[in-house]
Amino acid sequence: MEAAKPLARDVTGAPAISQRLDGTAFFVDDLGHMLTARHAVADCGRIVVSKEGRSVAARVVALAATDIALIKVPRTLGLAAVFPRASASAANDMVFAEAYDRLKPMLAHGGALGNAFVDATQRDPEHLVLRSNVTFGTSGAPVLDSRGLVEGVVSRRTTIDRVLAVDAAHAKSFLSAHGVRFQEDDRPQMSGTASRAHRAASISARVTCLQQ
Predict the structure, then answer these.
(1) I need a surface site. Which of 51, 106, 140, 188 has the fewest CB within 10 A?
(2) What distance in Å separates the CA atoms of residue 73 and residue 69, rounded to the nearest whole number?
(3) Nearest to 43 by CA among 23, 21, 24, 75
């Protein structure tokens, strides 16, 4: 098995910026709190959240021991994600996770019902193990089930087609520990035939870490 690879995109920046990392984050309430991958926002000189032509500065609220982080922008730019009361993902279930920057071209072609599967051969106490070919920029993206509910937060790739996502239970525990009032519901947030890419686009944004 190859070494685990973070899925934040390393982008060459201006001369004053030594490194720029692009990932994905998603809103978890109406106050501007967002979840993303810890490695996507740790040790940043500045953090910028961008969505639909708007960009705002963000700050780190908390970093978890697992690979997730809580950040905050002054105002929300999207809908708040909804978590299941109890995780329902099972082996071979089709789920959806994608980098924010890849959602727009995907939607232009009609969206997608799913692009990953819960791995039936591997178990991890803190993570969903996914069979997926998602690439850089997906760190911090929500993993959506067939109901449009968040089952996990993308962390890193362990092999060419295996991706780890911090599971919903650990994400919810982290949010609760920091006083974030997130939404839980087992009812679908979208129709059964709707594109999960559309749901992902409504709750997520690009997060950029500028390292100086």
Answers:
(1) 188
(2) 13
(3) 21
Cα separation of 192 and 31, whole Å? 29
d(CA 184, CA 80): 11
| Contact yes or no for 8/21 (Cβ under 8 A) | yes
Tens of pLDDT, residues 58-103: 999 999 999 999 999 999 999 999 999 987 788 899 999 999 999 9
pLDDT in tens, 147-195: 999 999 999 999 999 999 999 999 999 999 999 999 999 999 998 778 9
Query: What are the structural domains of the chain?
Result: 9-78+206-211 (2.40.10.10), 82-203 (2.40.10.10)
Nearest to 143 by CA among 199, 73, 78: 199
Diameter of the chain measured on Cα atoms: 49
Tens digit of pLDDT for each residue in 141-158? 999 999 999 999 999 999
Using DSSP's 3-state secondary structure scheme, residue 124 falls into coil
